[in-house]
Write a structure and sequence with these properties.
Alpha-Beta Plaits; homodimer; 16 helices; 5-stranded mixed beta sheet; Molybdenum Cofactor Biosythetic Enzyme, Chain A; 3 domains; alpha/beta; Maf protein
């Protein structure tokens, strides 16, 4: 069943706010089983609002509309909706009473604009707003049912939960099911090739890809006669997908690379120390974006050579003979991090993030990384391509992936 | 001059990602002087992409379109654009060469999907992508000029900056001029109050606010008979704005908090060391997102108490008497960072980022921070409200702001 979302407000079309309402509504509608095919943001313009609603009502069964229900002169949604439906505006006495009462309690003075919020297209179903002055409402527009909400996220969510979600659940088709996996280590095109033929093998299944740099997310979406059948189909296809992708699958569902690393270490009751140079604390920041104090002991960002020696005990001879960006230095940093912290695992990264500092032998993007573990040290190196941020991010993920695989033995 | 933005991808219509591209493009187009009236997000559906482009081309002079240029089967934008314009797809040999060369350099295997990215509607202007495989392109559709970009934000922004912004500036109406300032330390409502009356004092000037957590960006937009007059007006208003806001203005134009800190330290030929606990490396990551090796010597993320003592020399007595989250520990960490690194400035942060670990005396969100400098140590503390990420980000900005003010003496 097809749904559309409309967000009204010049603050959106002028790029002054990020439209998180649209994302939230799309996620809600998708979870309920609707097929959201169109999301439109338009400015506060009466003819454009009416024309957009009428156009969307031709191809969608459900339309959800936010914004433009406020008290000021640039809030035009309600009257535009009435124009679109060819209905008069009618003032609702019960809503007037709620507004007057609210202002009395807050000790605020009522202005004419406030009562505008009690006007609705004739016959609309009014949806009480427990956390603000503007109620929502719903009405028919051609064959579509349209729900209108204030643009304030908290008020939208409250009215949605109080009056709309359950209604929509009853009319939703509920015949799809989706599973997601995060992969790291292969580009999108290769991941796509690894899965070629899966859609043909499982009719009703669509494989989707999303690059969330540097990971590729794979989405297995199944459609069936009902949700149970869709789920069974998604599970069957997902097991083939999982088998084909093998160790490049880092995590499933909502789990992240960081979550997978933390889980692998926690299952082994292992502790971790970091020695970062070119990634400048990015790995530490990633790990500590979720609680990590039970396994992460310390992280050292050693930019200067003298600090690599002072904090990590990297021998001066290694630095002068092989350079700060070398396999030997990465190994010494990994050992040093274990020694300085007493951790059971360590990650060390040294490289040239750019934009300057490269040479023909050691170009910008060259990174050496090492994982120290109870059985020794694993090392890798690569020349990453891109700007400074991209090189740092690739290096951080590559090092975390080596840690994950080392800890899991895959 | 009227502009529209189209974002293509099921990940948007399904609510899986927040559409920051749309916000960024709306802001860019508005700053250039365009009137963005419509922003549409649609799923990966060939007929809908073509129909949307054709419909928008009827009422807009400029259309900007992102997403769907990838190598996989669900990337349908280019072929849909060709269908909309009634043009054949033509493979561009120069782009093929760039792609083949890129794959050779990366040591990756080319698959058929990759070459799809060298196909363009006949006559399109190809826009090289310096940071990814998918070039952008532009073409005429009726009377509208349409620009197509990959959906990856970094690639969009790079191609926009390399090939599109200057072109659009030439065709834009060009009677506006905007200046921007970043502020830190006061909420949006207070910043607004500090600037009340400025718009009345300078007719033609609009003051805009954008919360870019935890900073508030202030935009001074002036409209004049031509751009020179608009610029003069914006400059006059900006000097009043600057005076009223005082030290909460962190940076102007494209400069960031990190840039302001780096500049303040460089002007003093100062060096810096960090000792982070609850921010877990976020400050180090922020500073090293731009080249920092000329002033940043080291950063130590000392999560465990024993590590605070081992690496930073925080006396065990301070930790047992005052606790790890205390003014005394912050001071000891700031001193320890100076001592361990030989830097002239240090920043130390210790706190409770949550979600657990709080107590009635030391609630989640309590953070102590300190700046060590040649004349002594400055300290601050506050209970920040919000989730873990928000607390870490507020604490990092607050500490950097104290460093900036200490270094600048403001």
């Amino acid at each position: 069943m097809s749904a559309a979302v409309v967000c009204i407000g010049t603050e959106i079309t002028r790029g002054e706010i990020v439209n998180t309402n649209a994302t939230w509504l799309c996620d809600e509608l998708t979870s309920l089983g609707f097929d959201v095919t169109q999301v439109e943001s338009i400015d506060d313009d009466r003819p454009r609002i009416a024309a957009t609603l009428l156009r969307l009502a031709r191809d969608h069964e459900v339309i959800v509309c936010t914004g433009g229900l406020g008290p000021t002169t640039d809030d035009l949604t309600t009257e535009s909706a009435a124009v679109a439906a060819g209905l008069p505006l009618v003032r609702d006495p019960a809503t007037v009473e709620v507004i007057v009462d609210r202002f009395r309690r807050l000790g605020r003075t009522l202005v004419a604009g406030n009562l505008k919020q009690a006007d609705f297209p004739s016959g609309a179903v009014i949806l009480a707003n427990a956390v603000g002055t503007a109620p929502g409402f719903s009405m028919l527009l051609g064959a579509a049912r349209v729900w209108f909400f204030p643009g304030v996220p908290m008020e939208l969510k409250r009215i949605w939960g109080d009056h709309v979600r359950d209604t929509l659940r009853e009319i939703a088709p509920n015949t799809t099911f989706q599973l997601r996996m995060r992969t790291f280590g292969q580009p999108e095109s290769t991941v796509g090739q690894m899965l070629s033929g899966v859609e043909e093998q499982f009719p009703g299944v669509t494989i989707g890809y999303r690059a969330s740099f540097p990971e590729i997310e794979v989405k297995v979406l199944a459609r069936g006669a009902d949700q149970q059948k869709a789920r069974t189909l998604a599970d069957s296809a997902a097991s083939v997908v999982r088998h084909r992708l093998g160790a490049i699958v880092v995590a499933e569902g909502d789990q992240t690379m960081v979550g997978a690393v933390a889980q692998a270490l926690r299952e082994r009751k292992a502790t971790l120390a970091l020695a970062e140079s070119c990634t400048g604390g990015l790995v530490a920041h990633m790990l500590t974006s979720e609680p990590a104090s039970d396994y992460l002991l310390a992280a050292m960002v050693t930019y200067a050579n003298e600090i690599k020696t002072a904090l990590l005990g990297v021998p001066e001879g290694v630095l002068t003979e092989h350079g700060a960006v070398s396999r030997e230095t990465a190994i010494a940093m990994a050992h040093g991090a274990l020694r300085a912290s007493g951790a059971s695992f360590s990650v060390a990264i040294t490289g040239i993030a750019g934009p300057t500092g490269g040479s023909p032998e050691k170009p910008v993007g060259l990174v050496h990384w090492a994982v120290g573990h109870p059985g020794g040290v694993e090392t890798r190196d690569r020349v990453f391509v891109g700007d400074r941020g991209r090189i740092q991010r690739m290096a951080a993920f590559a090092a975390l992936d080596l840690l994950r695989r080392t800890a899991l033995g895959v």
